[in-house]
Model the fold of this input.
Amino acid sequence: MSESLLTPLALESGSKIVLLVLDGLGDLPHPEHRNQTPLEAARTPNLDRIAPQAAQGRLTPVSPGITPGSGPGHLGLFGYDPLTFTVGRGVLEALGAGIPLQPGDVAARANFCTVDGSGVVTDRRAGRIPSETCAKLVARLAQDASRFEDVEVVLQAGKGHRFVAVLRGPGLGGEVSDADPHKEGKPIPEARAVVEGPGNEKTARIVNAFVAKAHEVLGAESPANAAMARGLSARPRFPGYRELYRLRAAAIAAYPMYRGVAELAGMDRFVPDGEGATEAIATAKAHWNDFDYFFLHVKGTDMAGEDGNFDAKVAVIEAVDAALPDLLALAPDVLCITGDHSTPVLMKGHSWHPVPVFVHGRMCFADGFPRFHEKAARGGSLGTLASRDLIAVLLANAGRLDKYGA
Amino acid sequence: MSESLLTPLALESGSKIVLLVLDGLGDLPHPEHRNQTPLEAARTPNLDRIAPQAAQGRLTPVSPGITPGSGPGHLGLFGYDPLTFTVGRGVLEALGAGIPLQPGDVAARANFCTVDGSGVVTDRRAGRIPSETCAKLVARLAQDASRFEDVEVVLQAGKGHRFVAVLRGPGLGGEVSDADPHKEGKPIPEARAVVEGPGNEKTARIVNAFVAKAHEVLGAESPANAAMARGLSARPRFPGYRELYRLRAAAIAAYPMYRGVAELAGMDRFVPDGEGATEAIATAKAHWNDFDYFFLHVKGTDMAGEDGNFDAKVAVIEAVDAALPDLLALAPDVLCITGDHSTPVLMKGHSWHPVPVFVHGRMCFADGFPRFHEKAARGGSLGTLASRDLIAVLLANAGRLDKYGA
Done:
């Protein structure tokens, strides 16, 4: 919705926007850490120096109370309503595996399993085979089960029994049911078109042929003597940043999933030399003149939250703070620091809590707050926004949005 | 909208949610009471004890600036967008009168009036007859004007000239115009189907037959020699809490209207032994193991607000606080305290002001505030939410919502 409002208002400008995402940044006051959040407990002298001149607020990634996955979390930050712009499970898995998806591709989450003599699934995880075995078996399939009709099946091994399958060929549809019984004691069902049409029927046919061929190829293996596929979905076609906002956008992320989601928004992708903010900022510096908008992704905060490790989360935040002068030296017109969702240490997982957001720019409304953290952000001038509205605030602060109406 | 998002995410869990509604809780700073609100002025030691661990915020019942009636106010709290899930006036009147409505029932607000020899209404309130007269006349109609075709007309006397009529029978429609001229000096118009169709036409026919028969039965009475009906509406069919959220929900309210609205959400209804929080909590305790969600309604705050009685509103709040330990002893996983709307003492009526909301649970974001009231709630971590989004926050805090997207 916001994009149709913003597009006719978008202005060209020489200004530059940096969106620095600390994955899973938002947290809860921790009773064993003086009721502070990691962001509050961290020593952040560089951030503190610019905090009084920044505007603070909070972002609601999807809708109040909703805990987002990484896909919806980032799509929201990029300005796409995650309830409208949905990405299938297979596509997200392929993006996470770093498989570049082309328009028309259909992706699936796949895995090895064990079936008995009558085709009934007896172990959905094939005895949890090690990843090395998975890689070997995927190589076998790549040799003997990678082409059906005019469709290529691109395979990539994952962890344990998991792999990704991407169907690439003309006229494929993405609305196809799982070739996966979802429980043991049943045979692998045939994939079916869930919406009628030759594209979906073709995809179902190819998936069924792949599953049959995989069983034929792997039949003598034990325990991984078959394969199944689920979450079939077509790479979506979203309008990109250039056409929506006249922005040349760069995505800098060490993990393929985030580059992949950014690519759906039409961003150019870059792999930094390491996982930290230092490396991401160095990459931004190297391409500073070629882009108007830089999405920098730091994964460590989310990982520390998932691990329930307060000190580790603090350490990642402090490392980002240490790198901040390099970023400020580039003099972005607008610097935004936020997260795609909260990953509270206490919860060891994603959560629904609003995410603190920090916007620094000449006209941002300087809140005058001495520090940036969840508690300060409650009272910030940005208020509590839907994540999908952030892009408008960033464009406005960058002088890139014209007046609406006369 | 929220319900279609939440339903596929709803998880079973052993956790319990209590929604304690102090009707009309929200208020304004009162210049004659040190510019405090009643909630601020009340002594609430038990609430204060748990306040620092709770999250605060505010609820907008319908939309900013909109003053809700009790129906929309509660539907919002229950998660139903009051602009989409509407309840007709007749249905609300019947629920308020405690008439259990069955699917297919059509209800109307009715009243006695005076008509002259040519059928023109000369007094819409029949000289404001006393309630006892109304009861007697309703009994007459119940005897002589309670069956038309295959439709039963269930009648219940109200205050003064008012009564409720419920049409019960096969194939009735709810979209029918009023058999009420809305002013004096005009005859009672015939009810008409406002949307074509046999159901609405049947209802119109029955209503017109009832009005004619009532005049025939009452013709010799004075001043109440006729009756009219308005606000005709069918009992709506809303998806219930069990199918929407996998919640077994109980509604505990001394007043029938609130039990009635809760019943539209599929809640089981219980009448406590008294109007206070103590009795409501005792009822919750008696059924604690049978439900996942408890809606407890306390009416006194609204009544004191309507009366413009600051001290009375304070006293009701203090009585709720005194009962709070009994509720906390049940150890609900999530305790929410809020109102369905504001009823400021200064206004002696419902108002549009956001309503303070208090959510207590292990993962709620402990705001660290020493007390709960309108002023503190402005800066709380829940922010300002639409009432209809509250259910998502409660489910999330109860661990009853899965992640959205991967």
Notes: The first helix of chain A runs from residue 2 to 6. The mean pLDDT of chain A is 96. Residues 146 and 153 of chain A are 5 Å apart (CA to CA).
